């Protein structure tokens, strides 16, 4: 039962993404840029944390 719900959720998400891309490509590009900026910021924060740890947590 849970597997079917998960499949349905994935299909709904894919249909929504395709709808956004087809109806407003500029907005879809903005969403992708926002996502990559978030990933980049998270990676930078993790790097800063491990640098802090390597420096003896000072």
Break the fold down into its secondary structure elements and pairings.
Blueprint: H1 2-23, H2 25-54
Helix pairs in contact: 1-2
Describe the structure.
The protein has helices spanning 2-23, 25-54. The chain is mainly α and 58 residues long. The protein has a domain at 25-58. Helix 1 (2-23) crosses helix 2 (25-54). The longest helix has 30 residues, at 25-54. The model has no long low-confidence stretch (mean pLDDT 91).
Task: Offer a quick outline of the entry.
The chain is mainly α. It is built from two helices and no strands.
Poorly predicted runs of 5 or more residues: none
Average pLDDT level: 91
Major sheet description: none
Overall radius of gyration: 18 Å
Helix and strand content put the structural class at mainly alpha
Number of strands: 0
Order of helices and strands: HH
Helix content: over 70%
Number of helical regions: 2
First and last CA, distance: 51 Å
Strand content: under 5%
What best-fitting shape do the alpha-carbon axes yield?
elongated
List keywords for this structure.
58 residues; single chain; mainly alpha
């Amino acid at each position: 039962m849970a597997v079917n719900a998960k499949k349905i959720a994935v299909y709904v998400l894919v249909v929504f993404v395709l709808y956004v891309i087809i109806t407003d490509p500029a907005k879809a590009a903005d969403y992708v840029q926002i996502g990559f900026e978030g990933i980049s910021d998270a990676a930078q924060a993790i790097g800063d944390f491990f640098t802090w740890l390597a420096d003896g947590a000072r």
